[in-house]
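Q: I'm writing up a methods section and want to include an example of the input and output format. Could you take the sequence below and give the corresponding predicted structure tokens, formatted cleanly so I can copy it straight into the document?
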Amino acid sequence: MKQKIVMSLAVMAAMVMAGCNDSIQQQSGPCHIKGTVPDRFNGQTVFLVPMEGPQSPEYVDTVVVADGHFEFEKDTVILARIMLGFRMQPVVVVTEPGVVEVTIDSISSVKGTPQNDSLQAWKVLTEQLMMTNTIAKQQLLECQQNDSVTAERIRKDAHEKFVDYKNKTRRLAENMKGTVLGEYLGSMYPKTYQRRGADGKLVTYDGDTNEPVKGQN
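A: Here is the clean output for your methods example:
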């Protein structure tokens, strides 16, 4: 059953990734977040916390869970975390106009608007990569001392999967350019980045090789 769930999530991710160019449509109006959580959280407080900027009480929205549900309404488009207790992972959400459906459980998800559908697709890709890395680490522990050839193959395969994930993240960021989500994803794996050298000058580096880019310094 778990394998079927993973496969269906992968199919959903591929469909959203393929169609996200056509999904970006600027809408107006408030964002209605409708959340569902297990009944054991009834009476507990849910927090909607901005990912960036001030996070003092006046910028954080709160609501109490009732009958396994909670709701927020926002009139500004930001990237935020929905937080519920210490045992549940925060759920990242974009507060864009429309109805955003959030499920918080052992497997959490967001959907309902273009940016949140694409965000969910990226989360699926991230979960797949994490699962791949976990399996690779276990395999390396079992074979690296006795089978260096297999160990090297496992490392190469894991690296190729990471490169594929990184490139898919970049493509999604480009497809969502001009949106809150596009800016967020674009900051993760930039094709180039800058840092100061020993002489204090800014040096441009390739985001993949980490080597200085000729002609851009």
